[in-house]
Amino acid sequence: MLENTDRKLLWLWLDVAFGPADKRLWDVMSYYDSVEEMCDDLLSLRCGYVTQQEAEKIACCTFFQAKQVAEYCEKKGIYILTPDDPLYPERLKQIECPPAVLFCRGDVSCLSIEKSVAIIGTREPSDYSVVVAEEFSSFLAERGVNIISGFAMGIDTAAHRSAMRAGGSTVAVMGCGLEYDYPRGRTGLKREIATHGVAISEFFPQARPVPENFRIRNRIVSALSHCVLVVEAGIRSGTLNTVNHALSQNKDVFVIPPHDIFSEKYAGQCALLRDGAVEAYSPKDILYFLNKAKM
Predict the structure, then answer these.
(1) Which of 40, 50, 76, 289 has the alpha carbon at shortest distance from 178?
(2) Which of 92, 108, 212, 220 has the lowest CB atom count within 10 Å?
(3) Which of 38-52, 57-71, 250-264 has the lowest mean pLDDT?
């Protein structure tokens, strides 16, 4: 029944029906050979792999809703990336619960740049940590390394800006929709990133920022990167959530040695170093790792 339907529209409909970042979509998908087969069963109410509650929710979702999202994205210059797309990065396909849909603005090919590093840290960094983030990001970007971060205030912003100033590429992974102004007043920076790389989100374009969504997006930040660099992190920092994703994805974790071992601001770094993370004293340490690693 759905053989001639645009596959992107099918993925969009599934995203509407299950919701972004819902592992259940992939649990159900595992029983099917194609997205068409799965959608056909769900639409005809023949699918025996969903709960009654899920079936009722899916029954309320229409292709018209998916078409509305597609039309809105086309109007706003947002590229819809799905697992069937040749531009969908292989690194994302290898993680648990990969995004069924990524909304992208900018150069989508940046998502698959071979040498990529996530530079992450607190939203309220010390001046010292900002300088470190800028120096590492600039040095690496000048040498063709793609800089990935989460578009938050603080270390993320410093990493994105420095990569662009150095003439390199950067990827901003959003915890809200691409069209939502968050952090407030950063729409201009988001547009700038789209001209030097790409801004992406698995949440619908106008989705509001919800605290849990930032933890959800962290798995994408680490997955797109070949390694992760922690610049500054307290013991309760969300940065450590990204590190946990990186470790589960078998990514190497580098840590800037704490500026003050007695300060709680750097307690997360101390903990990571105790647990075996690698100290990074120079951006050359990261570059050396990337150059010798088997990509």
Answers:
(1) 76
(2) 212
(3) 38-52
Q: Whole-prediction pTM value?
A: 0.95
Which whole-number Å values give the CA distances from 162 to 7, 73, 113, in the listed order?
38, 29, 18
Q: Encode burial over 273-286: b for 16+ CB neighbours within 10 A, e otherwise.
A: beeebeebeebeeb
- pLDDT tens for 219-240 read 999 999 999 999 999 998 899 9
DSSP for 119-187, please give it: EEE-SS--HHHHHHHHHHHHHHHHTTPEEEE---TTHHHHHHHHHHHTT--EEEE-SS-TTS--STT-H
Task: Give CA–CA dist 268/236, Å, rounded.
Answer: 7
DSSP state of 21: T
**For residue 15, which of 95, 98, 105 has the smallest C-alpha distance?**
98
Closest CA to 38 of 84, 87, 93, 1: 1
Alpha helices, DSSP H only, in the chain?
7-18, 23-29, 35-43, 52-59, 63-76, 90-93, 127-142, 155-165, 187-196, 211-223, 239-248, 267-274, 283-292
- What SS3 class is residue 82? coil
CB 126 within 8 A of CB 259: yes
Is-contact 256 232, C-beta < 8 A?
yes
Q: Which residues are CB-neighbours of 128 under 8 A, at least 6 positions away? A: 259
> Structure tokens of 158?
């410093």
Burial (CB < 10 A; 0-12, 13-18, 19+), residue 60, is: exposed
CA distance 176 to 250: 26
